[in-house]
Amino acid sequence: QVQLVESGGGLVQPGGSLRLSCTASGFTNNRYALQWYRQAPRNERDFVAGFSTLSGNPNYADSVKGRFTISSGNARNTSYLQMNSLKPEDTAVYYCYNQGYWGQGTRVTVSS
Question: Do the beta carbons of residue 46 and residue 35 sit within 8 Å?
Fold first, then answer.
């Protein structure tokens, strides 16, 4: 069955870094355009990063531009989100998304 599994979350101090990973499986059409979203307490789930299906270029939310970098593994069913210069406002559950399916999320807490 379809699965998206995120990992790499945790507690980090402001200014620190984390690398999130997402591995997708079970998509019978073998199409992967993995995206990252996040949801802070009492907020909606917001787009963070993904690759444009038209250009293949990465897209980022304004709030993370210059700090976060999305990449894919050699097998396109894997995505990474390198998060640098983390801020307390980056605290959220981070979700991986592909073709209408969501992972279970991985929690990132930025706090001193």
Answer: no
pLDDT digits (tens, 9 = 90+) for 21-66: 999 998 877 778 899 999 998 899 999 999 887 788 899 999 999 9
Q: 81 near 96, Cβ under 8 Å?
A: no
d(CA 80, CA 101): 17
Could you tell me if 38 and 94 are in contact, meaning their C-beta atoms sit under 8 angstroms apart?
A: yes
* b/e code 82-106 from CB counts within 10 Å (16+ = b): ebeebeeebbbbbbbbbeeeebebb
